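Let us practice reading a record.
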Amino acid sequence: MAKSASFLQYMRAHGNTPGPTQRPVLAGAATGALAEIPALLMLWWSGALSSTTQALSLSLYVTLALHLLAMVVAGVIYGRVFSRAANDPHGGWLFGISFGFLLWVSGPVTVVQWALGRPLALGVAAMGILGGHLIYGLFLGLLFPWIHKLLQCELSQLKGPGPHGTFGVKPHTALTQSRGK
């Protein structure tokens, strides 16, 4: 017990509290879904949403569902790739907006245009798609540290060994029953 407690104190003293690699997937998924809201508003306002549904020959609801799914997956990728940088409350917006630009370049500009054989949108709608991706990235970068902090479990909240198992986690019943025999 003393050995593990001193190790935890050592980790906290050197700034090694649980960080962005603890729950980046969940934080990225939640942040990606939240950042999608202002991005969708931009897509709707610019007419890019209707242009996209026409270009893909899909209904509005299917297009919205696919876009939401893609942005949640993009949020997960953002959390895993940028890890500690994504958790920076001062510079996270820059990583986020850069990631939004990267999504725009790799998604609607390259892959979708190649698959369709023509541009996804033209004129104001095309600018709306760029703006939507940049707004998505900006909100992703701004919200990720806040959402991640809500999801983190700090080392100081963990309990030591006791009746409920090591660090507050109950031992598996099959293991405890086999040890008692």
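A brief commentary: Residues 22-154 form one domain.
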